[in-house]
Amino acid sequence: MRLDSYLVKHFSKHSRVKLQRAIAAGGVKLDGGSAKSSTKIKTGQQVLFALPEVETEGPIPEDIPLDILYEDDAMVAINKPPNMVVHPAKGNWQGTLTSALAFHFQNLSSVGGPTRPGIVHRLDRDTSGVILVAKTDEAHQKLSKQFELRTVLKEYFAIVTPAPDRDRDVIDKPIGAHPYQREKKAIRENHTTSKNAWSMYEVVERFEGFASVKVKPKTGRTHQIRVHMAHVGCPVLCDRLYSGRAGLNLKHFDRRIRPDDDRVILARQALHAHRIEFAHPISGETMKLVAPLAKDIEEMLLVLREQRALE
User: Fold this and answer.
1) Exposed / middle / buried, residue 33 (Cβ in 10 Å: 0-12, 13-18, 19+)
2) What are the pLDDT digits (tens) for 14-48?
């Protein structure tokens, strides 16, 4: 029997394709040596195999508190905390927004599929702020259409470093796959993976070496604001992928702090989905929702005002 056929027979929860990929990645040893999917195995041979994670059909309900900004029979708006993945994916089956939604709400739309009930759009794991969730398929389709037509007005709040030279500007640069880092995106002119991307930023408050800005993206590309702000030389503060720094301690700002004092002020990108404006999917009424800034971003602003205020 072929090795892949043997594994499919004994581990039916996994597809043949997924098992073949695991074998190709070196996840199997046959009598202590490497093997291929097509390798014929015999009675008495020892197969050591690291099973891949089983993909669940839907989110497992979890009693995770939610900050609800708005709710009616058609939809709900959540102020998503940082460090929360929106929907299940490899390595993140628990603690997701969809798991919390499945626990708190009886009905959610099915348009996004079984692993993404109610999810109309998404935010990065470490981006906090307002996210819309549909309770019915009709609401989901009408909200999705607004995002597709770019009639949804979004405003993000970010802290960047250094401060931009201009008080406001438009960044109109296409975004595509990064040339050699799979998890990143990049500005790519005339590339097969590129899509047009448009953002407008405006400085809210300036500090020594830092600034808070509001950013209004017209398009919704993956990592758009993070890529665009990095492109103009002012990456989002503590953006692990695009700024080179993943966190900040208080001692970075105050020399009076003891060297061994490692109190963390910010441990994720300082990006927050602050406001959203759209037409209610059923009534058509103009909805304007605001998500209060997350606690860590508020604390970062206080430190900047105390330690990096401009004369």
Assistant:
1) exposed
2) 777 778 878 887 788 888 888 888 889 988 889 88
Cβ neighbour number for residue 40 with a 10 Å cutoff: 11
Answer CATH for 150-311 from 3.90.1150.10, 1.10.3720.10, 3.30.2350.10, 3.90.1030.10: 3.30.2350.10
124 belongs to the catalytic site: yes
- Contact call for residues 56 and 46 (beta carbons, < 8 A): no
Catalytic position from the list 4, 67, 124, 137: 124
Residue located via tokens 């009616």: 72
- How far is 243 from 271, CA to CA, in rounded Å? 13
For 189-224, how does the pLDDT look when each residue is reduced to its tens digit (9 = 90+)? Answer: 989 999 999 999 999 999 999 999 999 999 999 999
Q: State the amino acid at position 77 in one-letter form.
A: A
Q: Which two tokens stand for residue 92?
A: 């993140």
Q: Summarize the confidence of residues 10-17 as an average pLDDT.
A: 74
Find the length of the chain: 311
How far apart are the C-alpha atoms of 276 and 44, rounded to whole Å?
63
Backbone phi and psi for residue 135, each to the nearest 5 degrees, phi listed first: -90, -25
* Burial class for 304, CB neighbours closer than 10 Å (0-12, 13-18, 19+): buried
